[in-house]
Amino acid sequence: MLLQAVEPQRLYRQIAEQLRSHILAGEFTPGSRLPAERELASQLGVSRPSVREALIALEVEGWVEVRTGSGVYVLERSGQVNGHATKVPATEWGPLELIRARRVIEGEIAAMAATEGKRKQVDAIAAAIASMHKDADSGVQPRAGDRAFHTAVAQAAGNAVLSETVQTFWDARRGPLFERLGDHFETVPSWRKAISEHELVLEAIAAHDANAARAAMQHHLDKAHARFSASWRRASAS
Length: 238
What we know:
Elements: H1 11-24, H2 37-44, H3 48-60, E1 64-67, E2 71-74, H4 95-116, H5 119-137, H6 143-156, H7 160-173, H8 176-185, H9 188-206, H10 210-228, H11 232-237
Antiparallel strand pairs: 1-2
Helix pairs in contact: 1-3, 2-3, 3-8, 4-6, 4-7, 4-9, 4-10, 5-6, 5-9, 6-7, 9-10
């Protein structure tokens, strides 16, 4: 008897697989709208963020279309995957789960940066924020400056393992799930809010206030989680 190794699946993938099976069974027909996130979360016994991650995965893979302000609709599928679809790697982290993990780790990193950071490193954090302002003022989403900011904070903490951990977080940020979620919810106005939150982190680090730096970073990531968890209707209005 030939058996295949069993691999644990991330929760959002388990949810996506259930929804996909219902689509294949004809319970959700092409053109029909899926139940609201709240209803799906209740029926599945999971959180709404986990349902959102699953819906984004199905959209990336061409099973559904998210129409902001309207809902999530099942797509017509021929024998082949839609041309715009991308396969989500089995190892990809859920974006909202990733933000929660970052809150725990980067909060402590910010506190360490307030204690250990040198003038040159604080200047690098400030330069990253200035870059974000410049891009936002030009109508460009300042993702490069955002990465530079979080990387600079990690470097100011003076721990190579933590610095490399933050780099790993940002490598995950470039995955198809996070990219698609950003397409729906990241706008120049939302980035301006994020920049203001970054400035509070910088202020606390420059003042060598570890507790304030930790709280400011955690506040920023809580707000980021909330922005990505907003209703589709609110996303279309932003």
